[in-house]
Amino acid sequence: MSYQPQFTITSSILKSVSAVENAKAIIETSPLLPLYERQFKNDAFVRMAHFGTAVEGNKLNLGNVRKIIDGKGEEVIGRERDIQEVINYRKVIAFIDSYRDQSITSRTVKHINHISTEKVVGDVYRGSYRHNQNYFMNLVTQETIFTPPPADEVVAHMEQFIEYINGDEAKTLHPAIKASIVHERIVSIHPFVDGNGRTARACATLSLYLEGYDIKKFFSLEEYYDRDVLAYYKAISDGHTNLTVWIEYFCEGLAIELTQIKERVLKMSRDAKLKNTVGQVYLSEREEKIIDWLTNYGRLTNKDFEKLFPNISEDTVLRDLKDLIKHKIVAKRGSTKSSTYELKR
User: Fold this and answer.
1) In this predicted structure, what is the pLDDT of residue 35?
2) Model confidence pLDDT, tens digit, residues 55-93
3) What does the buried/exposed string (b/e) look like for 249-262 if buried means 16 or more CB atoms within 10 Å of the residue's CB?
4) In what order do the strands lie in the sheet with 330-333?
5) DSSP structure string for 185-213
6) DSSP percent split of the chain into helix, strand, coil, nearest 5
């Protein structure tokens, strides 16, 4: 018997996938200074470690997690388990970041669980499939959401799942949809004594990376989950019986996260371009608005003056433009009312 996920590609999923593709294209092609790229990656790393453990009840704040990531864990005061979970998640992220195989195998899943549960459960349980019945619980309300398969069925379920995600049908799926199935299936089987959620989230991220959707490693889906933990658990609960609902939730989360990053990347890209253009010249507030307009739209005409400055006279705007031309920041094309203004190349 093989695993065959049942779901429908809805308009919601298509909309989210379209937003993912749009954001991916812009993030990957927008020029960023190396310093900014490092900042984005470091920020995503910290957010993954913080929110990836917070969603399961870890009480450490973002600042403390950052200290642990930076190797300053001795400065953090908190529960020993909370600190260890963050240390482990840091190692998990480093592992998937350096993963060089072409597919996810049962060995991969076991290794991720082994790392994520170090000093949290006994060594005999780390990275080993369970031998007893467990339950998937809402860690906020402590309610049982569903009962996973019996322990003696875990190996078969995992083998069928691994076979599916590496098979021909899965290759036809959009990477976001495939990653959502990876996440849901590991949670549903709940193959380990502990760390199933962390393992599922890490494997979903790894699945995206392997499909070419690492997107410069700027994103963290974990923050989306933690923003509304009850909604996360509800989506998993609903997805257990209706996979389409879970895929919609997952894809929407990825779209939201990447769209937010896209906006930040565009702003940083514009700011870097602006700084390079302006240098050390002092600018008035109106002159800054003019440059911001030119950065966003490419050119400015007399007809645009009123949109940009509804209560400022045309003569005043022209004086500002003249000053920017004098400092070789803006170039004027033409010499009549139809003149256009552009950033000097």
Assistant:
1) 67
2) 989 999 999 999 999 888 888 999 999 999 999 999 999
3) bbbbbbbbbbbebb
4) 300-301, 340-343, 330-333
5) HHHHH--SSS-HHHHHHHHHHHHHHHTT-
6) 65, 5, 30
CA distance 72 to 197: 26
Scanning the structure block, which residue is given the tokens 């599922």? 200
301 three-class SS? strand
Give pTM, 2 decimals: 0.80
Report how far residue 72's alpha carbon sits from residue 68's, in angstroms, rounded to the nearest whole number: 5
Token reading at 137: 């619980």
Q: Is the pLDDT of residue 295 over 90?
A: no
- CATH number for the segment(s) 280-343: 1.10.10.10
Element of type H or E holding 225: helix 221-227
CA distance 111 to 106: 9
Contacts of 146 (CB under 8 A, 6+ apart): 135, 136, 188, 237, 240
Per-residue pLDDT reduced to its tens digit, 155-212: 999 999 999 999 999 999 999 999 999 999 999 999 999 999 999 999 999 999 999 9
32: helix, strand or coil? coil
Which CATH number fits the domain 11-269, given the four candidates 3.30.1330.60, 1.20.140.10, 3.40.50.2300, 1.10.3290.10? 1.10.3290.10
Token readout for 209 is 């990376």
Task: Kindly list the domain boundaries of the chain, sorted by start residue.
Answer: 11-269, 280-343
Q: What percent of the chain has pLDDT over 70?
A: 95
**In DSSP terms, which residues pair with 330 in a beta bridge?**
343
Element (H, E) at 342: strand 340-343
Look at residue 176 in the predicted model and tell me its pLDDT. Answer: 98
Contact 312, 286 (CB under 8 A): yes
pLDDT of residue 274: 62
CB count, 10 Å around CB of 216? 16
- Contact by Cβ (8 Å): 201, 222: yes
Q: How far is CA 84 from the centre of its chain?
A: 23
- Of all helices (H) and strands (E), which one includes residue 27? helix 11-29
Question: Is residue 51 classed exposed, middle or buried when 0-12, 13-18 and 19+ CB atoms within 10 A define those classes?
Answer: buried
